[in-house]
Design brief:
alpha/beta, binds 2-acetamido-2-deoxy-beta-D-glucopyranose, Rossmann fold, two-stranded antiparallel ribbon, hydrolase activity, globular
C-alpha cells in the first residue's frame, strides 16, 4: 500500500471502513491518490516560510540542530511542517493560534495524518464564530519528509517486503526458541543494514528519539510565533517585536507556548514535552494514553494490553445481542455470547494447528494463520464503530470457506506485504510508510537498553505479555523485540519523572498555563484507561475524561458532543472538569448508522489507522 492516501489509511481499519461494498477485489485496489507535493521545492531554512501545498495546506521545512545538546556540532535535521490554516485570518479576533498534533506511532507521519484528519480535527476544536485554530503537524525527525530519514532499505521496497515476508513466515514469537533465534538473527541483520547505511550517509538513528523531537517542538512554536509577529508587523507597517529575552528559555513568562493534541504515542511525546519544558505548555490534550513510565523504563510496553481481552469479550456480547441481522457471526439459536466465542476460537486454534493456503484476488498464495486473525481482531478493536460489523461478516465468510475478503484485509492492512506494490507506478517513488526501523529508532532509543538479553529473558517477557492478553500478547511482543539487537544509543535520553509543576493561568515562568487534559475510552485495546489515570496523577490539577465507548483514542472513534465540548472549552479557557468525568457516546458499533464524528461523513480514527505486519512492523498511530 504505497499509494499516498492508503498509507494514511494503512490498516485493516481503513479496509474495514470501506468494506461495505463487500467486494474483495475492489477493497484491495489502491485508494485514490491525495494531491502530491514535491518537498524538494521548499528550501530548508532557520526561519519559517510557508508555501502552498496539497491544495488547502501550507508547508515549510525548518532546519534545526541534529544534536540539541552539542553547540559545536554543526550538523542539521530538517523538519517537514504542514498546516491547515484557520478558517479566519490571523488578525481576526476569533483566531486562537496553532494547535499542534501528533498521530502516534512512533514513526507516524503528521504530514499524512492532517491531510486526512486535519479538517475533522479543526471542526472538533473550533467554536464557530468564537474561536478558530490552525492545525499544525509535522513529520518527526527520522520520519517521512523530514531528515535524517530512518530508512535502512533506502527505498528498496522489494528488499523491505522480502524482509517482512521472511519475518512473518518465521511465525509468532510464542512458539519458542527456534522462532526466537531466527527472529533475533533477522532483527540483528536489519540493525547491520542500518549501521552500514549510517557509515555511508552519516549518523541519524541516535538523534531521533523523543527528547529531541520535543525540543524540535519548542523550536517550531518559537518560529511560528516569530513568523506571526513578522507578518503582523508587515500588516501594520511597524517593527516586528521579537522578544529576545525569551532566548533565555524559561526565565520569561511571555515565552510562546504550545497548544497540542496528541494521540497514542503522541501522548508519550506530549508527556515528555510537558515534563522537559513545563513552562512551554499552553494547552495539552493527551488522548489514548500510554503509560510513559512503562514506555521509558524497564522491559517496556507491558502496560498496554490490560483491557484488550475484556474488550474482545464485549465484541462477542454485542454480537450476540445484535443478532444475525447485524452480526454475521451470530446464529439465531445461540443461547449466549459464549457460543459465538467458542466457534470463533475453535476456528482460530484450527488455523494455529493447520494454517490454510488461499489464492488471493491479487493472485498471490497466502497462508492464513491464527496469528493473522488475532492481528485483524486487534485492528478492529481500535475502531469498533467502523470495523466490528465488517469483521464479523469477513470472519463468517472465511469460516464458511470463502476467505477472499479476509485475504484482501490482510493485504490491505499489511499483515502481509502486497507484492504488486513493489512496482513503482510511473515515475513516482513511493513515499515512505511507517518503517520498522524508524519506529525502532524512537522506541528503542527511549527505552532501556535490552540488546543484551538472552532467550530466557525473552521467554519471560513473552509469557508476561500473553498473561496480560491472550489475544494480543504474543503479537505485541514484536514491537519491543526489534530492540533485541538495536545498536544505536541516543546521547539525549529522558527517563522521567513525567510530571509538571502546578499550572498557573497567569503565565508564570516554568509552569504550564493550564492543567493537562487526558482522554480515554472506557475500553481501549492498546492504551488502557488506567494508564490515563496513572499519568494524570503526576500532573497537578489534570483531568481524565472517560468516553463511554470502545476503541483506540476517544476523538474519532465514537461520537460524543460531551467530549467534544470539554475539549473545545479547554482549548479556549484552559479549564478542565474538577473531577474525573464520564461522557456518553451517542451510538455504538452495532447501531445501524453510527458515524464516529457526529454529523460529519468524516473518516474517523481509522486514518490514525494502524498498519500491522510482522517483524515489528506493527505500527501504531
Ligand atoms: C551528551 O552530550 C553532552 C554535550 O555534548 C555531553 O556533555 C554529555 O557528556 C553527553 N552524554 C553522554 C551520555 O554521552
Ligand atoms: C560535539 O561536537 C563536536 C563537533 O562535531 C565533536 O567534536 C564533539 O565530540 C562533540 N561532543 C560530544 C560530547 O559528542
Ligand atoms: C466470496 O466472497 C466474495 C466477497 O464477499 C464474493 O464476491 C465471492 O463471490 C465469493 N466467492 C464464492 C466462491 O462464493
Ligand atoms: C517521467 O520521467 C521522464 C524522464 O525523466 C520525464 O520526461 C517524464 O515527464 C516523467 N513523467 C512524469 C509523469 O512525471
Ligand atoms: C504467567 O501466568 C502463569 C500462570 O498464571 C504463571 O505461572 C507465570 O509465572 C506467569 N508468567 C509471567 C512472566 O508473568
Amino acid at each position: 500500500m504505497h499509494s499516498y492516501y492508503q498509507l494514511v489509511f494503512a490498516g485493516s481499519l481503513a479496509i474495514f471502513a470501506s468494506a461495505t461494498s463487500a467486494n474483495a477485489a475492489k477493497q484491495a485496489a489502491p485508494a485514490p491518490r491525495a494531491p502530491q507535493f514535491d518537498w524538494e521545492t521548499v528550501p530548508p531554512s532557520r526561519e519559517l516560510q510557508f508555501h502552498d501545498c496539497y491544495d488547502a495546506f501550507k508547508c515549510a521545512r525548518l532546519e534545526v540542530p541534529l544534536d540539541w545538546l552539542n553547540d559545536s556540532d554543526t550538523r542539521t535535521a530538517t523538519i517537514a511542517i504542514k498546516k491547515l490554516p484557520a478558517v479566519v485570518s490571523d488578525d481576526d479576533h476569533t483566531f486562537g493560534g496553532s494547535i499542534f498534533t501528533n498521530p502516534g506511532g512512533p514513526g507516524g507521519s503528521g504530514v499524512r495524518f492532517i491531510q486526512v484528519e486535519g479538517h475533522n480535527l479543526q471542526r472538533y476544536v473550533d467554536k464557530p464564530g468564537r474561536r478558530h485554530y490552525e492545525i499544525v503537524s509535522w513529520d518527526p525527525r527520522g520520519v517521512g519528509y523530514s531528515t535524517p530519514v530512518s530508512d535502512c532499505f533506502r527505498s528498496n521496497i522489494i528488499a523491505r517486503d522480502a524482509y517482512l515476508f521472511e519475518y512473518r513466515g518465521n511465525g509468532g514469537l510464542e512458539q519458542g526458541d527456534s522462532t526466537i533465534n531466527h527472529a533475533r538473527a533477522m532483527v540483528k541483520g536489519l540493525a547491520q543494514r542500518c549501521e552500514s547505511v549510517e557509515e555511508q550517509e552519516g549518523a541519524g538513528m541516535a538523534y531521533v528519539n523523543t527528547p529531541s523531537v520535543a525540543r524540535d517542538m519548542v523550536e517550531m512554536v518559537d518560529k511560528i510565533d516569530e513568523l506571526r509577529r513578522r507578518e503582523a508587523a508587515e500588516r501594520t507597517g511597524g517593527e516586528p517585536r521579537i522578544e529576545l529575552k525569551r532566548r533565555n528559555g524559561e526565565e520569561d513568562r511571555n515565552v510562546p507556548r504550545l497548544q497540542y493534541i496528541g494521540f497514542s504515542y503522541g501522548t508519550v511525546l506530549g508527556n515528555y514535552f510537558a515534563s522537559l519544558f513545563p513552562g512551554r505548555v499552553g494547552r495539552m490534550v493527551l488522548d489514548g494514553v500510554f503509560n510513559t513510565e512503562d514506555y521509558a523504563n524497564g522491559p517496556g510496553w507491558l502496560a498496554n494490553l490490560v483491557d484488550t481481552d475484556e474488550m474482545f469479550d464485549k465484541f462477542f456480547d454485542g454480537c450476540h445481542k445484535a443478532g444475525p441481522s447485524s452480526c454475521a457471526l451470530a446464529i439465531e439459536s445461540d443461547s449466549s455470547a459464549s457460543e459465538i466465542k467458542s466457534r470463533f476460537w475453535s476456528w482460530v486454534v484450527g488455523l494455529d494447528e493447520a494454517p490454510q493456503p488461499v489464492l488471493s484476488p491479487s493472485g498471490s498464495t497466502i497462508i492464513i494463520t491464527g496469528n493473522d486473525i488475532r492481528g485483524i481482531v486487534v485492528g478492529a478493536l481500535c475502531l469498533p464503530i467502523k470495523a466490528f460489523k465488517p469483521m464479523a461478516e469477513t470472519f463468517h465468510q472465511a469460516m464458511a470457506g470463502n476467505a477472499s475478503n479476509l485475504v484482501a484485509i490482510m493485504e490491505g492492512s499489511r499483515i502481509i506485504p502486497r507484492l504488486q506494490d513493489a512496482c513503482p507506478v510511473g515515475n513516482a517513488t513511493a513515499p515512505p510508510s511507517i518503517l520498522v526501523e524508524a519506529q525502532s529508532a524512537v522506541l528503542c532509543g527511549d527505552g532501556d537498553d535490552i540488546s543484551d538479553k538472552d532467550n530466557a529473558w525473552w521467554h519471560k517477557y513473552i509469557d508476561h505479555q500473553v498473561n496480560i492478553s491472550k489475544i494480543f500478547g504474543a503479537y505485541w511482543t514484536n514491537l519491543r523485540f526489534t530492540c533485541s539487537s538495536w545498536p544505536f544509543r541516543p546521547n539525549w535520553s529522558f527517563k522521567g519523572p513525567f510530571r509538571t509543576p502546578k499550572p498557573d493561568p497567569n503565565l508564570v515562568a516554568g509552569r504550564p498555563a493550564a492543567p493537562l487534559l487526558f482522554l480515554s475510552n472506557r475500553l481501549d485495546p492498546v492504551t488502557p484507561l488506567r494508564a490515563a489515570r496513572a499519568m494524570a496523577a503526576n500532573h497537578p490539577d489534570a483531568a481524565v475524561i472517560i468516553q463511554e465507548a470502545m476503541g483506540h483514542c476517544a476523538v474519532g472513534t465514537a461520537p460524543s458532543q460531551c467530549t467534544k465540548k470539554i475539549v473545545a472549552d479547554y482549548f479556549e479557557t484552559g479549564e478542565v472538569p474538577s473531577e474525573e468525568t464520564a461522557c456518553e457516546a451517542s451510538c455504538g458499533p452495532w447501531a445501524d448508522d453510527c458515524n464516529v464524528y457526529e454529523s460529519s461523513a468524516g473518516f474517523g480514527g481509522g486514518s490514525r489507522g494502524w498498519s500491522w505486519g510482522w517483524g515489528g512492523t506493527a505500527s501504531w498511530y
